[in-house]
């Protein structure tokens, strides 16, 4: 069975989910689909490509999605069915990723955050709903810290304030293995890191998504392998997280219920660094929650970006409220 067919199965029926204003009953657009545009842009000499799905009457600010290092601007196409009726959806291959130019490792997360700022300037977008997952979460956090006026809402997915120690050790080993051409071994190890191990808990489409991850990595071209190796070097050379101020905008931190790479505990730590944020887990998912429950995760993104309630959702835990402002209020309330 093709992987796309597997990923399309077992989604929550449309009538089982609360409807977002502006969406049709099936979660799609009440009218015709908006046009899709792709643009090549250049920042500091490096070409990169964005994908823009337009909508005539937006209900919220444009939604900018920054995916993980193994994703590209097309990885969120399935989610557009739920997001595009709400407004403009922007995805991007930043320099060093997807089909964009190769980016030497001495360019770090600050540079990628600046590239995102360049993207919005070129598109004439004043503010965005920023949805940032995994490695995109590190870029998204830095972007919010450096360009706070451009962020209307901030959603961080599978994000942590530190690279897990075992993953850091594995990256050094993978760098040697890439030089040796041992891609199948790397693919197996990466799939094991991204997916929760057997016995952790039920994860939707676990076997299918694991195969997808393996096939994607094992099938990389020499150019893609070169970018992957440079990405690993970039991770080891630059700060993943920097404790700088973050804008006090509506914020949501999300992890999979059974995420063993960026655990729920790590997600709570991220939420606690923000001025005020809600934190929740998506049921029956691990680190790849956006792929394992596409419809539900899309519904969550749509709800957050339109200020809809997140309580009592049938596919997630009840939100917890965390953050520096909450901690300060608590301390003030307990002071003698």
Automatic annotation (TrEMBL):
Region span, Disordered: 1-38
Descriptive protein name: Alpha/beta hydrolase
Domain of life: Bacteria
Domain AB hydrolase-1, chain residue ranges per copy: 62-291
Alphabetical UniProt keywords: Hydrolase
A GO cellular-component term linked to this record: membrane
Pfam families membership: Abhydrolase_1
Species this protein is from: Streptomyces corynorhini
An example molecular function term from Gene Ontology annotations: hydrolase activity
């Amino acid at each position: 069975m093709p992987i796309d067919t597997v990923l399309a199965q077992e989604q929550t029926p449309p009538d089982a989910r609360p409807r977002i204003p502006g969406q049709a009953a099936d979660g799609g657009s009440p009218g015709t689909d908006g046009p899709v545009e792709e643009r090549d842009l250049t920042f500091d000499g490096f070409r990169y490509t964005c994908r823009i799905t337009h909508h005539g009457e937006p209900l919220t600010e444009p939604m900018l999605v920054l995916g993980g290092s193994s994703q590209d601007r097309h990885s969120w196409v399935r989610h557009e069915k739920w997001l595009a009726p709400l407004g403009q959806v922007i995805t991007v291959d930043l320099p060093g990723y997807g089909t964009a130019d190769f980016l030497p490792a001495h360019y770090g997360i600050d540079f990628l955050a600046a590239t995102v700022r360049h993207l919005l300037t070129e598109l004439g977008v004043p503010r965005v709903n920023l949805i940032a997952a995994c490695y995109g979460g590190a870029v998204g956090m830095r972007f919010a810290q450096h360009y706070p006026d451009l962020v209307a809402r901030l959603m961080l997915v599978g994000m942590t304030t530190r690279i897990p120690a075992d993953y850091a050790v594995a990256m050094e080993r993978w760098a040697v293995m890439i030089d040796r051409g041992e891609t199948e071994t790397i693919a197996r190890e990466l799939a094991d890191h991204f997916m929760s191990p057997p016995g952790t808990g039920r994860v939707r489409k676990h076997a299918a998504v694991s195969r997808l991850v393996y096939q994607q990595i094992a099938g990389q071209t020499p150019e893609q392998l070169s970018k992957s190796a440079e990405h690993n070097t970039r991770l080891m050379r630059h700060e993943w997280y920097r404790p700088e101020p973050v804008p006090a905008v509506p914020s949501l931190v999300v992890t999979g219920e059974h995420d063993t790479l960026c655990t729920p505990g790590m997600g709570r730590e991220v939420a606690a660094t923000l001025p005020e944020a809600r934190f929740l887990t998506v049921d029956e998912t691990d680190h790849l929650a956006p792929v394992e429950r596409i419809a539900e995760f899309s519904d969550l993104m749509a709800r957050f970006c339109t200020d809809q309630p997140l309580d009592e959702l049938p596919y997630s835990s009840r939100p917890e409220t965390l953050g520096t402002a909450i901690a300060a209020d608590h301390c003030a309330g307990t002071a003698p």
